[in-house]
Amino acid sequence: GLRNRRYLAHQMPADLAFYDREQQRDGKLDLTMLFALVRIEGVDPHHPERKVAVGDRALQQFSQVLGALVRTGDYIVRWDDIEILLMFRPLTSRHIESIGERIREAIRGHAFDNGSGAPLTLECAIGIVEYPLHRDPLRRPGWEQMIGLARSAMLWAARQGPDGWAAFRPAARSDLNQLLREMGDDPTPLIDSGRLEVIGSHA
User: Fold this and answer.
1) What dihedral do alpha carbons 136, 93, 104, 82 form, nearest 10°?
2) From start to end of 60-195, where are the E strands?
């Protein structure tokens, strides 16, 4: 089922600490944890430019669709009224693209119902971020910063068009705190300068 932010605040530090210990012990540098923040919006089928409310019924279906994509040990958190956070325990970093596409296609392929008798069309935007961003343990960000970066990627994907996903990868020498401060509402200057790499469906 859906977790809440309180669960995340309690569980996330323990999960990241466990991952750090395991990585130091095993040296498996190709394994990363993934955060995926997913936002949905209802679309008026007769006027696609108009957004319609997403009720609790459709949100529950949305969470069930996402729940089918996670493994035992992964978890799903209701972030706010129209956003859900997925946390994937360690997998190889090459899976980042397949995760984005699987989420997008799962939402596209589901017939949502808001109780009105007519199908509800949903659009999504997905922001993904990997942990760790840096191999240096002293430069690793906290989980709040990771979600902040995932949110920035999600908003960037939403601006590029409907049903998109994006992942941001700061350059190796970047200071994440400064990067997030400079990012604001438009990360384009950071992308153009090479301080921030973006991969995704619209990249």
Assistant:
1) -30
2) 75-80, 83-92, 112-113, 119-131, 164-170
